[in-house]
Design brief:
Residues about 1-60 have low confidence and may be disordered. The longest helix has 10 residues, at about 45-50. A hairpin with a 2-residue loop joins strand 10 and strand 11. This protein has a single domain (about 5-405), classed as TolB, C-terminal domain (Neuraminidase). By secondary structure, the chain is mostly beta strands. The strands form eight sheets. The chain has a four-stranded antiparallel beta sheet. The two termini are about 30 Å apart. It has helices at about 5, 45-50, 55-60, 165-175, 190, 260-265, and strands at about 15-20, 25-30, 30, 40, 70-75, 80-85, 90-95, 100-105, 110-115, 120-130, 130-135, 150-155, 160-165, 180-185, 205, 215-220, 225-230, 235, 245-250, 250-255, 275, 280-285, 290-300, 305-310, 320-325, 330-335, 340-345, 350-355, 360-365, 370-375, 380-385, 400-405.
């Protein structure tokens, strides 16, 4: 993927850009992470857009039902991009750019720091019993500065354990190395006319080495599943730390429009071609049918409504599309009835796909919702996730504005099943 889900940029010393559809890209010094998004604008402008556009505008002007009123549990968080809730109502939230894992009391209050990486991104939090799992991404693309990238756990006594080094696994195997992304059918003559350079997205490319574990999901017998947003894969980690690729997800097609071509000075011959974007998995949750449900968004050309939910069989790796029509789908929660809640980071809402529905609807309007989690007490979410995030080499002008909130559940909701 071309964005921050892929690049592992979530560190404050990197310059951040976003496409109008929600993709982010990083630059550190003279080194540029691959696959710059199309329609790139500054992150500050993108955040301003998210602050002003209403979800009704983003989703066809339909007026949503009266929204539930949230309870604020924590605030002042820097990029709270992942969230988990324990059986006792304690919530765990990562501040990805800050590289920390924090605990929030069930009644709310000041977060307690459980873990700090010292610089690398921390995200992908999940909890099972008294053990909290999380991902750490120190991959930079430069062997001289690469740090640990993989999965860790922390127990109730604060002991941290390394479960697997998924970065080394990606470097060794690179499961999507032979997958062709971009404009597959572009002619050599047309390709020769396409401008090149770090400021331009690649028009045609194959999967490179780019580990970015973005979500974790614990299972029975010490198994942990991982959504790697850089490798475009779902991985399975055994209790002994053995990593296998469970599923390599399919590329997501989009059509190159005249507007996109003009934005980057692409020649006219590119217009109308199908661009096969990276299939970027951003979260994992158990469904009531025993399958793993996955949010997916496209790297490269992310048009509004191009995000999707898939489900993956936990042992065979077989996958099926459940629904599409989501915008910047970064996280999900599934209840025992099969209702699916999805955070749309730049869509201005938490969407819900009700059991049996073919298209998502609005559960609640929210500013930059990054993560959602269900418990019998309500729907937990992080909002304002990029307020105060660095948008360039200069210090941010706004203080961190991320929050953990809790919404009451609707009457038709089925309680969380795990």
């Amino acid at each position: 993927m071309s964005g921050w889900w892929r690049s592992g940029l979530c560190q404050p010393d990197r310059v951040v850009h976003r496409s109008v559809s929600g993709d982010l890209e990083s630059h550190r010094g003279n080194h540029t992470m691959r696959r710059a998004p199309v329609l790139v604008v500054g992150a500050a402008a993108a955040i301003g857009l998210a602050l002003t556009i209403s979800p009704a505008q983003a989703h066809g002007g339909h007026k949503p039902p009266p929204p539930p009123t949230p309870t604020t549990l924590a605030e002042g968080l820097l990029t709270p991009l992942s969230l988990a809730v324990g059986a006792d109502g304690t919530s765990y939230v990562t501040q990805n750019f800050a590289g920390t894992l924090n605990r929030v009391p069930r009644r709310g209050g000041a977060p307690t720091e459980l873990y700090a990486s010292g610089g690398a991104e921390v995200g992908g939090v999940s909890v099972k019993g008294r053990t909290v799992y999380f991902a750490e991404t120190g991959f930079t693309g430069d062997p001289a500065t690469n740090g640990f990238t993989g999965i860790k756990s922390i127990d109730s006594r604060g002991k941290v354990r390394v479960l697997a080094d998924t970065g080394k696994y990606e470097e060794k195997y690179n499961p999507n190395a032979d997958v062709e992304y971009g404009a597959r059918d572009i002619s050599d003559e047309c390709l020769a006319q396409v401008p090149t350079g770090p400021e331009f997205p690649p028009v045609k490319y194959t999967g490179d080495i780019n580990p970015h574990p973005y979500a974790t999901l614990p299972a029975a017998h010490g198994t942990v599943f991982v959504a790697d947003a850089g490798a475009n894969t779902i991985q399975r980690i055994s209790a002994r730390g053995k990593i296998t690729t469970l599923a390599l997800l399919p590329p997501i097609p989009a059509t190159v429009t005249p507007e996109i071509a003009a934005q980057f000075g692409f020649p006219e011959c590119v217009v109308g071609l199908t661009y096969w974007g990276d299939p970027v998995p951003t979260d994992l949750e158990w469904g009531p049918d025993g399958w793993i449900y996955v949010t997916l968004l496209p790297g490269g050309l992310e048009a509004p409504g191009s995000g999707a939910v898939y489900k993956v069989h936990p042992w065979t790796g077989k996958f099926k599309k459940v629904a599409s029509g989501f915008t910047s789908s970064t996280n999900l929660a599934v209840d025992r009835k099969g209702n699916i809640y999805v955070s749309e980071l730049f869509g201005g809402r938490i969407a819900v796909l009700k059991k049996g529905a073919k298209t998502p609807s609005t559960f609640v309007e929210a500013l930059m919702p990054a993560a959602v989690e269900l418990s019998p007490k309500g729907l937990y979410a992080t909002t304002g996730a990029l307020i105060g995030a660095p948008t360039g080499p200069e210090p941010p002008t706004d203080p961190p504005g991320g929050m953990v909130v809790k919404y009451p559940l609707p009457k038709w909701h089925g309680h969380h099943h795990r």
